[in-house]
Amino acid sequence: MPSACAETVPAAGLLSRLPDDELELLLLIRHFELQLLDLYGRGELNGTTHTCLGQEYIPVAVSGLLRDGDFVLSNHRGHGHYLARYRDPHGLLAEIMGREGAICAGVGGSQHIRREGYLSTGIQGESLPVATGIALHLKRTRPGALACVYIGDGSWGEGAVYEALNLASLWRLPLLVVVENNGIAQSTPTSRQLAGTIAGRAAASALAPALDLVRRGEPLVAEFAAHRLGPHSKGDDTRSAPEIEHARAHDWYRRYADQHPRQFAQFDAAQREHVRAVVAEVSARPPSTWTRS
């Protein structure tokens, strides 16, 4: 039985100077999400979207630990997960807009995306049992590979999460659970719907203490502290003005710009223009075959 442990990762370390490629990826995700909100505001997108504004550093940090043979499972707030894995803003935007070149022919939209080695779903907690099954498959067929699944703090109210963690520990599966704890589950503060702590609950599930052991079959829960800048989706924010301002005051984007102005200005301007060019190019494409029919 692997030792019982979970890792909690604060956001503060991101304020040290980043390698250019990591900052570039962070800013790609930030400006992609901002452009999505702009497109929705102009009525050019259908359905809904859940941005990861304020949480971009998490998939960027995790992506550097993953290998090509690993499998990533995402959730409803998953654009950053996809972009950190594939650096493919054209395909993702085409999917959301239902244009040619879409990842899933435009039928998956913002939340439900499938690509080789990647799967996202909009149902809270659903991806963790699926990730456990994939980790079992990887253990049998691809030794050394792992399944990385992103979940939120709100997912810890789902019984399937605990069933999955129990099996992952029992079967010693190569499973990495990344918890994006932004302190609020849609409109309910985490403190009002979760007894104890996520780290405490993970420890009770006998999870391994280090990522390098995950690949050898000792699952790990890594909890990242984050601040969600925007509403749950587009306009459903029930937080008070002071709570929203607190999140904005802790936004890595503003703080990094203050501490590393020259590097930030160079890459921020470049990624802003890059994403605008992506939007212009994808918007000019015809609808995908599936969305036309």
Can you put this structure into words, describing what you see?
- With 293 residues, this protein is of the alpha/beta class.
- It has twelve helices and nine strands.
- The protein has a seven-stranded mixed β-sheet, sandwiched between helices.
- Helix 1 packs across helix 3 and helix 10 packs across helix 11.
- The longest helix is centred in the last third of the chain and has 23 residues, at 261-283.
- The N and C termini lie far apart (53 Å).
How far is the first residue's CA from the last residue's CA?
53 Å
CATH-derived architecture of the domain at 48-229:
3-Layer(aba) Sandwich
User: What percentage of the residues does DSSP assign to strands (E)?
Assistant: 5-15%
Structural class by SSE content: alpha/beta
Strand order of the largest sheet: 1-9-6-5-2-4-3
> What low-confidence regions span 5 or more consecutive residues with pLDDT below 50?
1-5, 184-204
Query: How many distinct beta strands?
Result: 9
What proportion of the residues is helical, as a percent range? Answer: 40-55%
Q: Going by CATH, what is the homologous superfamily of the domain at 48-229? A: Thiamin diphosphate (ThDP)-binding fold, Pyr/PP domains
Overall shape: globular
Any idea of the CATH topology of the domain at 48-229? Rossmann fold
What's the story with the biggest beta sheet?
7 strands, mixed
Tally of individual helices: 12
Can you tell me the CATH class of the domain at 48-229? Alpha Beta
Cα-atom radius of gyration: 19 Å
What's the overall average pLDDT, rounded? Answer: 82
Order of SSEs, N→C? EHHEHHEEHEHEEEHHEHHHH
